[in-house]
Amino acid sequence: MNAFTRRGACPALSAPMLTGDGLLVRLNPVAGGLSPELLIALAESALRHGNGIMEVTARGSLQIRGLTADSAALLAAEVDALGIAVRTGVPVETGPLAGIDPQEIADPRPMAERIRVAVDEAGLTQRLGPKVSVIVDGGGQLSMDAVTADVRLKAVRADNDIVWSVSIAGDGRNAKVLAKVDANAARDIAVAALRMVAEKGREAHTRDLSDRQLVSLAGWLCLTSLREAPPSVLPDISPSRGEIGSSGAGFSLTRPEIGETIGDSVISPLEGEMSGRTEGGASRKPIGLFPLAGDTFTLGIALPYGSMPADKIIALAQSALALGTIEIRLAPGRALLFLGQPPAANQPLQDTAAALGFVTSPTDPRTRIAACAGTPACASGRIATRDIAGTIAAENADILDFTLHISGCAKGCAHPGPAALTIVGGENGAGLVVNATAKALPAGYRPGYDAARGFSRVAAVIRSARYPGETAAACLTRLGPAGIAEAYRQAQTKKRK
Questions:
Q1: Of 65, 91, 367, 432, which cross-links 53 as Cys (Cβ 3.0–4.6 Å)?
Q2: 17-91+286-362 and 367-489: identical CATH topology
Q3: CATH superfamily of 17-91+286-362
Q4: What percent of the chain shows pLDDT beyond 90?
Q5: What's the whole-number average pLDDT of the chain?
């Protein structure tokens, strides 16, 4: 087993990362899913070797927490013995229904594999940082628009043909579009962008590319049209080997910044994926029924805040097995997709999931809250994040049309970018941060045990102050940080009187 990875790197099965509650590993099955039997066996292994907490991240990765150096090695051996092949190298991700969604514009899997091969042939795997990623989105019911990436390719229709929109540095709403080209050119532009990033070092991302480099990438189609066939690797488009100067005349790209804003717009790629992170974008939540071929459906069930005890995952997988489920896929958005069961089994499976505490409705207020493990699960936590989140979700569902971040400490693992409101644990109790990250100075404090009461006071002010038809998020913006913080503090003052 390799040495532990630093915080911020990807905690792969062979390189666990040290967190506040021990070591953490993350894995992505190569096949895209697991049989119910394999998921049960994996959860049992997590119970034996970890602290019993399993997570599905916002990008659809499976995480096992609370490991030690010895138990992480045992877990890795058991995963290998189960025959679960996990992805390694530069992440090239496709949607959870890739290849089986009847509404898909194109199957993204062949393109993803071509990019993986080209990246490997170019020797880029060891030169790129662990957070660099590529998304290949075929469209369909569960798009990848909400997930950020350094390079993203999305299938789009053009007249009677299908082309690929290539963009960089962002999610489906804010990434900078470079070109809409055929499959060969799309692959080449993607690999060229990764080569440029690699030449800047392992800390670099596509957001660090210069305007001239972006123009070079955008003009690549003009260059390749002069050749008989585009190469899979572009050695001549780089800071050190000359760039295409004027091929994109009139084309201007400013350097994008990747960070989240109120309204769930942007989130930095891959960072803080420890649990329950809320991603930006407008794609449909992977919760509920999604039609497949014929009369079959896949059922999406989410983990609250991206986390669930392993014994409850075992119970759900056992129910799915009994009802005829063949495969369980991990889905971006902290969810599991159940496939293969007869249509009549979906409602009983959904009922079982609800009884176990899983999220079975896309309107569940828990989908609007990002909460890390907190106390007592994480030694770094200062507040009981999940208890606070549960109380707020139960009492204030009517105003949760914005992202609420509840962080056990200032590291902000669950949601690294700014959120509309953040409750963060610290030495002075539970601080309230407005429109910033968990690292920002809170505008007000109250005891950690009373944080949910403070939020309820803020919710009451929103209800009384918002105009007809105004969203809670818009009302928060209008009230401003000072007014919101005062409401949060007032609850504590009134309690003392």
A1: 65
A2: no
A3: Sulfite Reductase Hemoprotein;Domain 2 (3.90.480.10)
A4: 67
A5: 84
pLDDT at 283: 62
pLDDT at position 11: 64
Q: Is the dihedral of CA 199, 202, 203, 204 positive or negative?
A: positive
Calculate what percentage of the chain has a pLDDT beyond 70. Answer: 83
**Residue 434: which of 273, 279, 261, 280 has the closest Cα?**
261
Cis-peptide, bond into residue 29, ω within 30° of zero: no
Q: What is the mean pLDDT of residues 417-428?
A: 92
pLDDT over threshold 70, residue 55: yes
CA angle 363, 367, 368 (to 5 degrees): 100
pLDDT mean over 461-473? 95
Q: Which residues of 210-222 are buried (b: 16+ CB within 10 A; e: fewer)?
A: eeebbbbbbbbbe
Cα dist. 132→12, 84, 166, 345, 477 in Å? Answer: 14, 24, 16, 40, 33
β-pair type (92-93, 134-137) = parallel
User: How far is it, in rounded angstroms, from Cα 283 to Cα 28?
Assistant: 21
- Determine the average pLDDT of the residues in 402-422: 91
CATH topology of domain 367-489: Sulfite Reductase Hemoprotein; domain 1 (3.30.413)
CB 359 within 8 A of CB 2: no
How far CA 402 is from CA of 231, 385, 390, in Å, comes to: 45, 18, 16
Nearest-5° Cα angle at 143, 140 to 144:
155
Neighbouring C-alpha atoms within 13 Å toward the C-beta of 221: 14
Residue 318 Cα distances to 37, 311, 385, 426, angstroms: 8, 10, 29, 40
Plot region of 270 (φ>0 → left; ψ -120 to 50 → alpha; else → beta): left
In the prediction, which pLDDT does 9 show? 53
Q: Do the Cβ atoms of 286 and 142 come closer than 8 Å?
A: yes
Report residue 25 as tokens. Answer: 């590993």
Name the residue among 481, 483, 462, 489 with its Cα closest to residue 473.
462
Each domain of the chain, given as residue ranges in start order, spans 17-91+286-362, 97-221, 367-489
Mean pLDDT in residue range 458-467: 95
Alpha-carbon distance 396 to 326, whole Å?
Answer: 38
pLDDT of residue 492: 57
Q: Mind giving me the DSSP string for 208-227?
A: GS-HHHHHHHHTHHHHHTTS
Kindly report, residue by residue over 75-94, the tens digit of the pLDDT.
Answer: 999 999 999 888 888 999 99
Distance CA 86, CA 11 (A): 13
pLDDT of residue 270: 34
pLDDT tens-place string over residues 296-325: 999 999 999 999 999 999 999 999 999 999
